[in-house]
Amino acid sequence: MKPLEKTKFKKKEVDGVSIAYREAGNPENPTIILLHGYPSSSHQYRKVLTQLSDEYHLIAPDYPGFGLSDFPAPDQYTYTFDNISQTMNSFINLLKIDHYAIMMQDYGAPVGFRIATANPDKVTAILTQNGNAYKEGIGEVWKGIKKMWANRTEETENALLSAFTLDGLKWDYTHGTQDAESINPDCWHLDFLRMQRPHAHKVNLDLWYDYQNNLNLYPKWQKYLRDYQPPLLITWGKNDEYFPESGAKAFKRDVKKIDYNIYDTGHFALEEYGDEIIEKIRDFMNTLSL
How far is CA 155 from the centre of its chain? Predict the structure, then answer.
């Protein structure tokens, strides 16, 4: 096995926004772009960056308003998935990466599928860890957000604010796990600190409201999967109430060959089953070069 390489913490100016990102591995090796979910950041991929840097070139950016990237005020940056995806696509182009696999989790799916459908010939594979692209993958926990979609008022917004508390953020990481005490509490404490920044609640409510537009794009993403048949790795926490296992199963309709793996855990499967999932990634990516 080649020696592991240290993760480096970098920044890149993208259309006036400073994007923080983590990079590990030799750029001459196959690249995997690691796209994070809510309410996290590139921090969620720390194990992947550490353990796969011997064989792969790994890039994990923070979206605007997340992690250590700039957090422009909402009147200076439009917080929609269209705009974040455009920023991330520009970021990849600035790094001059011509071919890459995309690993996506939660918000990483609407960002990643926008990038993939815009650059289908550049994408070598899709790796989804609870990154949804089907309406049947929208879980019960979306009920309150759907009420806001139907009628965005102070009342429907306030009903969601408990999700931004420390306990609410802890739930994202520990719900559905087999051993909650094995989940690193730094995860939700970091997210909670970032959620105290000016505009953070509004920005996250704006993104939840905009999420309905992702559902409208599901047919386009599914067509991309059918037409291009990208190699697909699924590593899914089946107890995720945001995106239950029904979302993972739905990919089987459109992709002929899937490396399909389900784990008895929740939304952030990498937290509880990181070693197992990372070995799946290694095995899957190695098959692409055979």
Answer: 29
Q: Is residue 203 part of a domain?
A: no
Quote the CA–CA distance of 212 and 64 in Å, as a whole number. Answer: 20
Biggest alpha carbon–alpha carbon distance for the chain: 56
Domain that holds residue 257: 8-141+215-288
Query: CA 126, CA 129: separation in Å to the nearest integer?
Result: 10
For 139-168, b/e burial (b = at least 16 CB within 10 A) is bebbeebebbbeeeeeebbeebeebbeeeb
Which residue numbers are catalytic? 267
At how many degrees (to 10) do helices 212-228 and 81-94 cross?
A: 50
Count of structural domains, the chain: 1
Helix 108-118 to helix 212-228 angle (10° resolution) is: 50
Instruction: Give the CATH number, domain containing residue 90.
Output: 3.40.50.1820
- The pairing of strands 232-237 and 258-263 is parallel
Report the chain (290 residues): mean pLDDT per 10 consecutive residues: 83 97 97 98 98 97 98 97 98 97 98 98 98 97 98 98 98 98 98 97 98 98 98 98 98 97 98 98 89
